[in-house]
# Entry
Amino acid sequence: MLRRLLFAVLVAAALAPRTAHGQRVFPGTSRDTALVTRLIVLGSGTPVPDPGRAGPAYAVTYGTRVFLFDAGAGVMRRVAAAGLPIDGMTAVLLTHLHSDHTLGLPDVIHTTWVMGRSRVMPVIGPPGTSAMVGHLQSAWIEDVVLRTEGTERGRRGGQRVDARETTGGIVYDSAGVRIRAIPVPHGGWPVSFAFRIDTPDRSIVLGGDTAPSAALEEASRGVDLLVHEVYASTRVAPEQRPGGDLWPQYLREFHTSDEELGAIAARAQPKQLILSHVLRMGGTMEEVLAGVRRGGFRGAVMVANDLDRF
Ligand SMILES: [Zn+2]
Ligand SMILES: [Zn+2]
# Structure
């Protein structure tokens, strides 16, 4: 019996599709594909190139569907580390086009192709998304020609994505999964989003980058998981550089302080508050958590780390 099982496993491994690079692709075998919703933190970082935190990126999975939210630096390494398929996602959704949230976009577009993607993958984001995707595709055009025309014989057209721009509202609604883009204030960005994801078993809000937002607070009322950015209120001070006197104003207009977040969460009452994209500015995570408590939130709160699963 055991020998027969071993034989079946070996045959399956031999028959598993390979990409042009000999990488075997086992879609869904290394992860939970039951109809339960999972949030996986792929990158909990900020623009700071912290080796322990990849740039902002989160996966929400439901069954075999994988939704990628933001594509910070290092994203495909984290997708692989999380055991998620490396040959494409159901959809890629961008909160906004700040570089820390999009530096991994060419990685997502091209690596999924090199690893076997043939489907045209939707990339949904604010106005400007189509232009960004177009520029990225022109930037790597020589690579695409060489990989398809050369001896590598890459899958022709597999690098294509379908860039879709939105200004908010329902951006995905299919077979039990509904995703809504919620416009939030993020300084000078004309359109920046939080996303609310509803599935049969879970409600999740990913706040993106945002100053305090009434719309985000309303959307977060009683949700299972609220992932929110935050900065350390105790560390706000002008910086010693040209223009550094504007730093406190920048923080106020673009981001949410720990005390502000504590007040928002106290009103919205998410079942679990998860801090990510934390601007500590020399402070500790304990200081930030203390700020959230000063703001009035008494519920469950924790700091996200890369590859955490909820
Ligand atoms: Zn950011
Ligand atoms: Zn931003």
